[in-house]
Design a protein that fits this description.
It is a single chain. By secondary structure, the chain is of the alpha+beta class. It folds into two domains: about 220 residues, Multidrug efflux transporter AcrB transmembrane domain (Multidrug efflux transporter AcrB transmembrane fold, Up-down Bundle), CATH 1.20.1640; about 190 residues, Gyrase A, domain 2. The protein is about 55% helix and about 15% strand. The chain has a four-stranded antiparallel beta sheet with strand order 5-6-4-14. A four-stranded antiparallel beta sheet has the order 8-7-11-12, with helices on one face. Strands 9-10-13 form a three-stranded antiparallel beta sheet. Helix 10 packs across helix 13 and helix 11 runs parallel beside helix 13. The longest helix has about 55 residues.
């Protein structure tokens, strides 16, 4: 046996050890705590061995519990060619809003004119709805003509103190309930950010606005047309500010100034950021998944995975003896590597995702079954152990490659066009397929080659 083969063998074992402790560092850290608490006379002090990093798994809504919300967007005023962009902008803004309020890793998906929001670990539905907003819509409105404003003010005085029945008898009574501002094309769709700043001249708090390229053009046209007039900012049809335009503003950057307190300016910036939705939305469905139900689902799925793993190991030991044992060790390393990748990428684990993981274990063993069957056939033809091993891997490889490649193509399609749960299944299965090919071709092969030239090679019943 060459030194190179020995080095590879122990490197694989080291990889498995590191991956295993990354996947489940609890037991190693307990051992480290035990050693650190020992008083060793040799060192005349206690050891200070650092803990192995504990990276938690990211659990999805069905395993952790949380809230599932479905919103419907009102695209009636959006042209057909712009609907996809409007929904994409809506998704981005909702994600920014949820993260702004501290909800980590939300799942936000667009399905047609519906927006699906999943907040794992959040159980207060009223708070979640408040964070997202029932129908949040930011828009900029320009001041109506002086003649129109005069009519509105006159009509307001005319209906003052009258009952609704009396008001309806007044000609054009509805003018009394109109706003002095008209809608424009400038909405939250074009606002990139708003933030609290301080005027460099007066040191007074102000709010800075930054529009995208298209919004900058619209804003420049609006300010040019409304110099000396107010440009009102509405969220959910509620007036939150009506700054006066001093001059035409180009470049997409503007400041809202006034006799603001720091708290008011900060709140205004927060409202602008939180309300910058390109289209209005309406909550049409909400579903709560309790933490107890999520914990139960997690426990059951883990049990299924453990039972499935040991069933596969038992099958390999009974039918393939020593190669089956080596494949089981390779399979254990494969599981550790896969779980470590789930932590490091990180992958949000759902029930469907765990299903993909369990399925990938079976597919990982499938590659070993093909290799060992070919290996046995070569041995039965009277070929040496070394030649049988090389031929077994060489002849099994096309079947392994084609079978895994076709499954990988399907997982890519599922990930591209599926919903969140289907995406989770496709992602875990595709990662499992890639690592299983590494496990079968690299790990199992090197384990088998370790026995070339050893006494165990001559014991036929172990291999045939």
């Amino acid at each position: 046996m060459t030194k190179k083969r020995i080095y590879i063998f122990f490197l694989i074992l080291l990889l498995g050890l590191v991956a295993g402790n990354l996947a489940e560092p609890k037991y190693l850290n307990q051992a480290i705590d035990y050693l650190n608490n020992l008083k060793l006379p040799v060192f005349n002090s206690q050891l200070k061995i650092p803990h192995f990093p504990e990276i938690p798994f990211r659990l999805g809504l069905d395993l952790q519990g949380g809230i599932h919300l479905v919103y419907e967007a009102d695209l009636s005023k959006v042209e057909a060619k712009d609907k996809a962009n409007a929904m994409a902008g809506l998704r981005d803004v909702i994600e920014r809003r949820v993260n702004y309020f501290g909800v980590q890793e939300p799942v936000i998906q667009v399905q047609g004119e519906k927006l699906i929001v999943e907040l794992a670990g959040v159980f207060d539905s009223n708070k979640a709805i408040e964070i997202i907003g029932k129908t949040p819509f930011l828009e900029f409105r320009e001041q109506k003509s002086e003649e129109e404003i005069k009519k509105i003010e006159e009509k307001k005085k005319e209906v003052e103190g009258k009952s609704f029945e009396e008001v309806q008898k007044i000609e054009n009574w509805w003018l009394a309930f109109e706003e002095p501002f008209s809608p424009t094309n400038l909405t939250g769709q074009y606002l990139q950010r708003a933030e609290l700043v301080y005027d460099p001249n007066t040191y007074q708090p102000a709010v800075s606005l930054q529009f995208n390229d298209e919004g900058a053009k619209i804003f420049a046209e609006l300010t040019e047309k409304n110099v000396g007039k107010s440009l009102a900012i509405y969220i959910d049809n509620q007036l939150i500010s009506a700054p006066r335009v001093q001059e035409k503003i180009s470049g997409g950057k503007a400041q809202i100034t006034g006799q603001f307190t720091v708290d008011y300016a900060r709140e205004l910036a927060r409202n602008l950021n939180a309300g910058a939705l390109p289209v209005p939305i309406k909550l049409i469905s909400q579903q709560n998944v309790g933490p107890v139900l999520g914990k139960l689902s997690l426990e059951q799925s883990l049990k299924a995975g453990i039972y499935g793993f040991w069933a596969v190991v038992l099958f390999m030991l009974i039918f393939y003896r020593l190669p089956g044992f080596l494949a089981s060790v390779a399979l254990t390393i494969y599981v550790f590597i896969l779980l470590t990748l789930f932590k490091l990428i990180p992958v949000t684990l759902t029930l469907a995702g765990i299903g993909g993981l369990i399925l990938s274990i079976g597919m990982a063993v499938d590659a070993n079954v093909l290799i060992f069957s070919r290996f046995r056939e070569e041995l039965r033809q009277g070929k040496t152990f070394s030649i049988s091993l090389q031929e077994g891997f060489r002849r099994a490889w096309p079947s392994i490659r084609d079978g895994n490649l076709t499954t990988l193509i399907v997982t890519i399609i599922l990930f591209a066009f599926g919903t969140s749960f289907i995406k989770g299944f496709a992602l875990t299965l595709s990662l499992g397929i890639l690592i299983s090919m590494f496990s079968a071709i690299i790990i199992t092969k090197n384990f088998m080659e370790f026995f070339q030239g050893k006494k165990l090679e001559k014991i036929n019943w172990l291999w045939k």
